[in-house]
Amino acid sequence: MYPDVPDVIYYDSTETPENVLTIKTGYSYLPVVAESDFNKGVNVAVRGKSAKETMDSLLYQYTHTNDSVTLSTIPIYYL
What pTM was computed for the model? Predict the structure, then answer.
């Protein structure tokens, strides 16, 4: 399993995040000084499919739930 991708918004360090974007809750804002510094700190990697992702995908594609429910009842007249 791969770890979740962090919720991060990068912005130009010459401006405050309030000026660049509307502030969104749940995100971390990280300033970027220069593009070359940003490229040094970020690694781009290809990621394959994990066994869990493949299993979840197959379960989603090939399983289904019932669309209807049938009830059989018998009246009891002596109650």
Answer: 0.41
